[in-house]
Predict the 3D structure of the following.
Amino acid sequence: MGITHPNRVIGRIYMTNGWTNRETWLVNVHFGDYWENAGDVNGTKEYLETAWENAEVEGKRFFDDYISLKLVNWDELLEAYNFHEEAP
């Protein structure tokens, strides 16, 4: 995506590599290369939510230490890939 600023504050928004937040950036880094349409982005959202829901308590704590799914900006990801559909 050609983003040159790893982490910076713009106004009150903390940006990571040009993304709204670390969580959105992480999802893009790990899954973005596989997306061909909005359905793929939405499928990733469902996959991650299901993985979290099915994890045992310790797994959820480990998961939450690395990424809070509530903070992922799915609409930003859709827009960045020009899929122009709101995430469910």
About this structure: The first helix runs from residue 22 to 31. The longest strand covers residues 7-10.
